[in-house]
Amino acid sequence: MKRIMLLMVILTMIYACNQGRTSVKVSKTATRYEMLAEYPERKTDRVLNVLKNAFKDQDSLLLNKNLSGGKELTLANGAVFYLRFNPGKLEMELLNSKNSAAGLEFFDKMVREVKSAVN
Q1: Residue 36 or 56, more confident
Q2: Cα 83 to Cα 73: distance, rounded to the nearest angstrom
Q3: At what angle do helices 44-59 and 101-118 cross, to 10 degrees?
Q4: Following CA atoms 45, 51, 53, 54 in sequence, which dihedral angle do they give, to the nearest 10 degrees?
Q5: What strand order describes the sheet that includes 23-28?
Q6: In angstroms, what is the C-alpha Rg of the chain?
Q7: Where does the signal sequence lie (predicted)?
Q8: What pLDDT was estimated at residue 3?
Q9: What are phi and psi of 36, to 5 degrees?
Q10: Which tens digit of pLDDT belongs to each residue from 1-33?
Q11: CA angle in degrees (0–180, nearest 5) for 46-51-54
């Protein structure tokens, strides 16, 4: 009986540790819109697909750049924002002063899609 209980505890711990932590923090103020997503590395491909779909055609070349150190990106649709992308972590920041309503709407949609991809 003790062995079964010990085995159950060990299996529970292994399962819990293997789940990985997911955290998505979104901050929206009058001057900026920020998102920080931390997620298990196994979900990196999902996030990358969201970015590829968001950037589409000519903007997909942006993903070929090294974004691990962070870059300010200007997309063909006029959206300007900061992006840092590493396996397991994505940071994005948009300044309202550099963007139109269309850029803000684009960014908001991308944030919602990233949130659904990591959850």
Answers
A1: 36
A2: 7
A3: 150
A4: 160
A5: 23-28, 32-38, 89-95, 80-86, 71-74
A6: 18
A7: 1-18
A8: 77
A9: -125, 120
A10: 777 766 666 666 666 555 568 999 999 999 999
A11: 125
Report d(CA 102, CA 19) in Å as an integer. 37
* Distance set, CA 52 to CA 4, 46, 48 (Å): 47, 10, 6
Q: Structure tokens of 87?
A: 């396996």
The domain spans of the chain are 20-118
Mean pLDDT of the 88-110 span: 95
Q: What CATH number was assigned to the domain covering residues 20-118?
A: 3.30.1360
Residue type, 19: Q
Phi, psi values for residue 68, rounded to 5°: -70, -30
